[in-house]
Amino acid sequence: MVPRRLNLGGLANHQIPSLDFRPRRSYLYGTTMINVHLSRVVLRSGTDHQYIYLSELQGDRVFPIMIGNSEANEIHRVIHNQGAARPLTHQLAHDLVQSLGGTIKSVDITGLRENTFFAQISILTGNDQEEVRLDARPSDAIALALRSRAPLRVADEVFDLAADME
C-alpha cells in the first residue's frame, strides 16, 4: 500500500550518541534510504544560521544542514533533556500526534534542490496504523524525530548532492 501524503507547506559543539536502528538500508518509492544519526549540533551566537550534521550509521559520509535558531534550540533542548516553561511548537506537534493515537515512524531527508533540503515525516495513525507521510522542513522533522526517538534516514542520492555543494 502506498502511504497517503499530506502537504503542509512547508557557542557549543555537541556530540550526540548514535542510536542503532535496523534495517541499515530501506527503500522509499524505489529510493535507497540510509539510516543516519545526528552527529553534531553547532550553535553560534550572533547569527540566525545554526548547523546540524547528519552521519551514516555505518559509513563515513556526513553533511551539514543549516537551520534556524528556534529549531536549533529545540534540538539542543531535546538532546540535553531540557524542558521549556510551556510547550513550544515541536512539543505541541509531538503531543498532538500522540494524543490522536499516532506514532512517528521515521523521518526521511528525501531531496536536495537549489541548496534546500526536503524531508518527510512518516506517521502511523491510530488504531488502523495507516501510514501518512507529511512534507516538512528537515529541521522541524529532525526535532520531532529526536523527541519521539524515531529513526532518521537520508536518501542515498542526497549524500551525493550534498557532497557536490561543498
List its traits:
166 residues, alpha+beta, 10 strands, 41% strand, disordered N terminus
Describe the structure.
A hairpin with a 6-residue loop joins strand 4 and strand 5 (50-56). Strands 1, 2, 3, 4, 5, 6, 7, 8, 9 and 10 form a 10-stranded mixed sheet that branches. This protein has a single domain (11-165), classed as Bifunctional nuclease domain (Roll), CATH 3.10.690.10. The relative contact order is 0.21. The protein is 26% helix and 41% strand. It contains 4 helices and 10 strands, in the order ββββββααβββαβα. With 166 residues, it is α+β, with helices and mostly antiparallel strands.
CATH class: Alpha Beta
Helix count, DSSP H or I runs of 4 or more residues: 4
Oligomer: single chain
What is the CATH topology?
Bifunctional nuclease domain
Number of domains: 1
Order of helices and strands: EEEEEEHHEEEHEH
